[in-house]
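Colleagues,

For the teaching module next term, I've prepared a clean inverse folding example: a structure given as tokens, and then the sequence designed for it. I'd like students to try predicting residues themselves before seeing the answer, so please don't circulate the second half yet.
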């Protein structure tokens, strides 16, 4: 089964959801999990003034309460030039997916830790290159790809794909079965509850494969 995970490196609820995704990958190694940066606030000019800091802290406290994930409320990334633009980190994710398929979740985790725990500015391409180096990607190769029109276009395509499938928020997990979109979870969810949904979807898919020769009848088509 293929599951699409729509996320954003600068989405606090996605950071809170990351342990659940980690458990999903560990418990279902045969599931094809495709991570897509859906575009939380690409190209935003939002500054982190006192009002927006209060807004962030409110959500960070809620995420911490629900998930246990640690946040450094000092927000050392805040500066006169910082804008809450999620396009650069989303593009960096696409670069890593292109250069090192299978390392995207690890890179996403590195960005989340850098931002939420260490207060590093992941809108800064130098910081993003530092994190890519931790995976073994040279700075020159990272920058060559990061600045390319191809990677910029692929990043936008991820945002557009998110909208086309009706993704209304992050994190979202969904499958596409015979052209039908099935949302597994929209928003934060703990693994034990998500597991029930995934098991149900797998059972439906297996049943559909066993009955693949049957036709639709009485207004119902098996998955």
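(Answer key — instructors only)
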């Amino acid at each position: 089964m293929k599951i699409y995970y729509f996320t954003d490196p600068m989405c606090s609820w996605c950071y809170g959801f990351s342990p659940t995704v980690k458990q999903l990958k560990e418990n279902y190694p045969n599931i094809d999990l495709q991570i897509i940066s859906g575009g939380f606030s690409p190209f935003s000019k939002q500054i982190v003034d006192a009002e927006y800091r209060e807004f962030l802290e409110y959500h960070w406290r809620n995420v911490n309460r629900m998930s246990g994930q640690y946040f450094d409320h000092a927000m050392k990334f805040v500066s006169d030039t910082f804008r809450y633009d999620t396009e650069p980190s989303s593009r960096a994710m696409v670069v890593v997916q292109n250069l090192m398929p299978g390392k995207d979740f690890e890179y996403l985790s590195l960005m989340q830790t850098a931002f939420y725990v260490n207060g590093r500015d992941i809108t800064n391409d130098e910081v993003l290159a530092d994190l890519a180096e931790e995976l073994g990607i040279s700075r020159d190769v990272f920058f060559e790809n990061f600045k390319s029109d191809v990677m910029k276009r692929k990043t936008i395509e991820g945002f557009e794909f998110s909208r086309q499938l009706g993704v209304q928020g992050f994190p979202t997990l969904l499958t596409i079965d015979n052209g039908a979109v099935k949302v597994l979870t929209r928003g934060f969810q703990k693994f034990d509850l998500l597991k029930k949904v995934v098991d149900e979807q797998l059972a439906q898919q297996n049943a559909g494969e066993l009955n693949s020769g049957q036709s639709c009848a009485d207004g119902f088509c098996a998955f």
